[in-house]
Specification:
Shape: globular
Structural class: mainly alpha
Largest sheet: 5 strands, mixed
Order of helices and strands: EHEEEHHHEHHHHHHHHHEHHHEH
Strand order of the largest sheet: 1-5-4-3-2
Radius of gyration: 23 Å
Low-confidence stretches: 7-16, 237-261
Number of strands: 7
């Protein structure tokens, strides 16, 4: 389902009636961990064994077991013809002629209108990337990091210059995060393999993380945004359990823990998890890329600050970057609906879980164009420089079907994060006082 991994070879023929005819009730009964079917374009596929080999990870494709996965399949794979050969051995039949193309209570009209919009957007060339845009973006990332090191090499390691250098490094890291996001979504090159190579470079060498780890988590978020037990961004409750107490006391403390606590722990937590994941998966390529990042950093910083000073500096840089990352990502999702699986069509599901931040040159740059979160979630393989072109068409479609299309200022987005924290704090306080 997710297009983030690399395809290797088609799966073997699975057991099943290749010419079988099935009802939605039959398909929906195959949704357990050991028995998984799904539907794409009315064709029924048995993915039970293939899910373990799925390049995007077992979980993202399993989230659609027993469901119609047509819209998600189309959204995640830029080259559908290439992927079809991997589906062929999994085919066990098709839906009965009397069955609707959509499952459960999904709107056939919304699905058809969104399909028409996607075809129109493709014909307008909005899925074609401008190489110069991404070359410039990579260049400015490298320039920011080079400038950060040059300042302290030439003018010394005073507190003022160290803070300035840390700010530039954090900015470079944040922008590298958005660039690896582009490559991870296969939105830069026509050939997926080129995207994979550059993704490993940007997330590994520039940021010290793992491409495969990111793919397996992030595609789940896109497949089922803000859905309990399916969106890993929602399932991080164990990480924030340390801060539950802050939600049982006044908002000022809750705000403090949100702004200071998570950004302090998230970099440490995630980098430990990433390293453990790479080692347990024997993902030596990602591990080598990640270690090259830290080796490069230590070579630049240890002669100036020593080992301890270097560790403190990189921790401070991570904290600065994490603050920006938390704000950018959470103001698009945290104030929106977070609920259990509702089995909605692609357009409705994504719009209920995302909102946009108003466009401006600064907002576009600062957020990596994720201020157009709605368009990104609807068309994850679209190059980000085209989001503003498709946005009016998406909004018109939402207006037609009465689906809320929310656009806020960045300050309104920040305020909504505070409001969500207060609501959570009130709930926890009530539970704490009446336990």
């Amino acid at each position: 389902m997710g297009g983030g991994g690399q395809l290797t070879e088609p799966a073997e023929q699975v057991n099943g009636r290749a010419g079988g005819v099935y009802t939605w009730q039959e398909v929906q009964s195959h949704c357990s961990r050991s028995d998984q079917w799904l539907v794409i374009d009315r064709k029924v596929y048995n993915i039970t064994q293939w899910a373990k080999r799925h390049p995007g990870g077992i979980r993202v494709i399993s989230h659609y077991a027993g469901e119609d996965a047509t819209e998600a399949f189309t959204a995640f794979h830029p080259d559908l013809k290439c992927v079809q050969k991997f589906l062929k051995p999994l085919l066990i039949g098709e839906l009965a002629a009397t069955e609707p193309s959509q499952d459960r209570n999904k709107s056939a009209t919304i699905i058809q209108d969104f399909h028409t919009l996607r075809a129109k957007v493709e014909s307008e060339g909005l899925f074609r990337a401008r190489p110069s845009f991404f070359c410039f973006h990579l260049g400015h990332i490298l320039l920011l990091e080079a400038l950060a090191w040059l300042i302290i090499w030439v003018w010394g390691t005073s507190w003022t210059l160290t803070l300035l250098s840390a700010f530039l490094l954090a900015t470079s890291q944040l922008q590298a995060g958005w660039l690896q996001h582009d490559f991870g979504h296969l939105s830069v090159f026509k050939k997926s393999s080129w995207n994979h190579v550059l993704h490993k470079f940007t997330i590994g060498h520039l940021k010290g993380a793992s491409a495969n780890w990111w793919n397996h988590r992030h595609y789940q978020h896109h497949a089922k945004p803000n859905v309990f037990s399916k969106d890993p961004d929602v399932n991080m409750l164990h990480l924030f359990s340390f801060f539950i107490l802050s939600l049982c006391i006044p908002l000022c403390y809750s705000t403090y823990f949100f702004l200071v606590g998570p950004p302090l722990l998230i970099p440490i937590y995630f980098h430990i998890q990433i390293m453990r994941s790479m080692i347990s998966r024997h993902d030596w390529v990602d591990l080598a890329c990640s270690l090259s990042h830290y080796l490069r950093y230590l070579c630049c910083s240890v002669p100036l600050y020593g080992l301890l000073g270097s560790m403190l500096l990189i921790s401070f840089v991570r904290v600065l970057e994490s603050h920006c990352f938390v704000w950018v990502t959470q103001m698009n999702h945290l104030p929106m609906n977070i609920d259990h699986e509702k089995h909605q069509d692609w357009l409705s599901m994504q719009l209920h879980a995302t909102c946009n931040i108003k466009q401006s040159p600064f907002n576009d740059w600062f957020s990596g164009h994720l201020n157009f979160q709605i368009e990104h979630h609807l068309f994850p393989t679209m190059p980000r420089h085209n989001y503003h072109l498709v946005a009016p068409q998406v909004r018109a479609l939402c207006d037609k079907h009465g689906i809320p299309y929310q656009v806020k200022t960045m300050w309104q987005g920040f305020a909504d994060v505070f409001r969500s924290l207060k609501n959570s704090g009130d709930l926890w306080l009530d539970a704490y006082l009446h336990k």
